[in-house]
């Protein structure tokens, strides 16, 4: 058997999906939607791909699409994609509304945890922008006394609450990057 490359390749690791793009904001929107609709109108993989394609088409119309795709997006652009996808899904599978967090940048981490917990008690998955150790959009699907339970496109499953903060900490939660998804099943009249 032949072998490619020399000694330098022995330390080289293959790139993982997502390492060359900044689409975690889009993945978070679709993952939150999938999670929120799982009980009432589950999204198939094909439908999820269709929604991602719709969002990417929209991204190409933005001023600097390559920057948003390769380097990531800000909360404003993520909200725009969330609203586009919500409009596209609403009335078909369910009525979908993405709700912004009302906390401002001066909120405490306890305020953020409280908002997340209230959202989850209402059955609303939470999208969160993290800075610090991770510059990443994720979905929070649960909260315990010790951790945030994630539904994450990068494979993370938990964040320790003790390591979370707003302006400091390993995992900084950006209040203006918090959003939750409300799903209301559509009622189709019987024919």
Task: Report on this structure.
The chain contains five helices and eight strands, in the order ααααβαβββββββ. By secondary structure, the protein is of the alpha+beta class. It has one domain: Cathepsin B, Chain A (Alpha-Beta Complex), CATH 3.90.70.
What does the largest sheet look like? 8 strands, mixed
Strand content: 15-25%
**Secondary-structure class:** alpha+beta
- The unreliable regions are none
Identify the quaternary structure here: single chain
In whole angstroms, the N-to-C terminal distance is: 65 Å
The helix/strand order is HHHHEHEEEEEEE
* Overall mean pLDDT: 86
Helix content: 25-40%
**How does the overall form come out from the CA principal axes?**
globular
- The CATH class turns out to be Alpha Beta
**How many strands?**
8
Number of helices: 5
Specify the CATH architecture: Alpha-Beta Complex
Q: What is the CATH topology classification name?
A: Cathepsin B, Chain A
Number of domains: 1
Q: Rg to the nearest angstrom?
A: 18 Å
